[in-house]
Amino acid sequence: MATQVFISCDTELSALLYQRGASARANYDASITGRTTAGDYGIGWQMDRLEAHGLKGVFFVDPMPALVHGRQIVTDIVGPILSRGHEVQLHVHTEWLDFAPTNPFAPLSGHSIADFPADAQKGILALARDLVVDGGAPTPTAFRAGNYGADDNTLHALAGLGIIWDTSLNPVYLGSECRISLPRETINATPHCGVTELPVSTLYDRPGHLRPAQVCALSSREMFALLDHAARTKQAHVMIVCHSFEMLSRDRQRPNRLVMDRYEALCAHVSQHAALESGVFSEVKPSLAGPAAHLPPNLLRTGWRYVEQVWAQARYERA
């Protein structure tokens, strides 16, 4: 059985751009379309690259901006994803509750969903589920918390709503934003609090230090090593993360060609590797038997990323 590789995208408007006065359309263009003077490099570009290699993506859509901008904005995000055969699942940034003209959970407030009590968490998740379904998506079966900011109450709430998968566990964030009570060494899909937790994949980039499998966080060499290790050790799943705006410079004015090249290389590697296949939650396969182990550090491999990052900072992050 091949290792399923989930290439996932947190698909979200920017709360910071909203606070700076950006209109709904300007925020959509910067955060979802990825519009620059050189072209569009948001989720449309990502879907182009996935499809060129015969892959499907999982787009975790945050519908909470509908509380501020109206429900049509969720439809505008969901429609193109589904029309191209990719998967929509649920993502929530609770920061948007503070901007809503009417906050149904006031006076409660929080940066992440784990900042809310259990009953409020279930209400927020039910509201978000309904918003994304009203936007045209199938009822979600998987969830990732904004900021990875979930706790065990979040998972219990998801289970109560029939959402059976969670992928909020990012071991790098455990003990800070992420408060799920699973060990830092968790790699496999793990039953916990009524759902199955599929953690964000990680590797050791230096002794004792985990780094997440995020497109902007790993070099292509590191990503290939992580994927090859998963295939070689017969891991059932690998969860890779990016964002709808990740192919852009930090100010979202220019494409970041280094990150784009990494994404292209990732898609090509998955499509060409006989022991890897594209993963989505509607087609998820059961875990393989046996424990999983993290890829150990390789300082030469890590050092190459540092060189790449310095070059990319000089090339793409200066106007």
Fold and architecture overview:
The chain has 319 residues and is an alpha/beta fold. It has a single domain, classed as Glycoside hydrolase/deacetylase (TIM Barrel), CATH 3.20.20.370. Helices cover 36% and strands 17% of the residues. The protein contains 10 helices and 13 strands. The protein has helices spanning 15-19, 24-33, 43-52, 66-69, 72-83, 118-134, 152-160, 220-232, 257-272, 299-316, and strands at 3-11, 35-36, 39-40, 58-61, 87-92, 142-145, 165-166, 190-192, 195-197, 202-206, 209-212, 237-243, 276-278. The strands form 3 sheets. Strands 1, 4, 5, 6, 7, 8, 9, 12 and 13 form a 9-stranded mixed sheet that branches. A two-stranded antiparallel sheet has the order 2-3. Strand 2 and strand 3 (39-40) form a beta hairpin. Helix 6 packs across helix 7 and helix 8 runs parallel beside helix 9 (257-272). The longest helix is centred in the C-terminal third of the chain and has 18 residues, at 299-316. The chain is globular. The model has no long low-confidence stretch (mean pLDDT 94).
